[in-house]
Structure to design on (157 residues):
């Protein structure tokens, strides 16, 4: 890295702008404080921008990474996460999901739920439904105080 070009502009109308230009690496860094927002921008091959207003913080960049021992995110209202491509959640230990009301999962093509040793589906009333429903296993048990098997053609054994 060679010599940096640094500029500080102060205006009673536009606020404060701090600019650092690294000509050798083609990077310009800017901080703008204008009385309404604070904007931090790093411009090179790609552009990263952080804009802070009294009620919001917006970050835009090619790659966003957090690296911490513990991360906690809380919202008093809704939380929405989305991806334009694949979305992955993983854990090297347990992964827990809980809702005090409902959990709704859906997939347009396929939804797989797999347990390496055990998989359970438990509820006071549990429905398993499909146009074609296959229940298979080396040992399969259907058990209940009242067990009903019905259909136009029922084959047991």
């Amino acid at each position: 890295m060679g010599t940096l070009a640094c500029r500080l502009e102060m205006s009673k109308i536009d606020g404060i702008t701090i600019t650092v230009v690294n000509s050798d690496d083609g990077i310009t860094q800017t901080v703008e404080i204008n009385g309404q927002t604070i904007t931090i921008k790093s411009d090179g091959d790609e552009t990263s921008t952080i804009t802070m207003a009294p009620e919001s913080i917006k970050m835009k960049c090619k790659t966003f990474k957090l690296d911490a021992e513990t991360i906690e995110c809380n919202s008093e209202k809704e939380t929405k996460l989305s991806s334009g491509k694949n979305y992955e959640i993983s854990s090297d230990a347990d992964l827990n999901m809980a809702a005090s009301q409902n959990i709704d999962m859906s997939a347009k093509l396929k939804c797989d739920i797999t347990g390496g040793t055990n998989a359970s589906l438990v509820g006071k009333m549990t429905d398993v439904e499909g146009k074609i429903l296959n229940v298979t296993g080396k040992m399969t048990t259907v058990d209940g105080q009242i067990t009903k098997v019905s259909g136009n053609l029922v084959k047991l054994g």
Remarks:
- The two ends are 79 Å apart (CA to CA).
- The mean pLDDT is 92.
- Strands lie at 5-11, 15-22, 27-33, 38-43, 47-53, 56-60.
- Residues 5-57 form one domain.
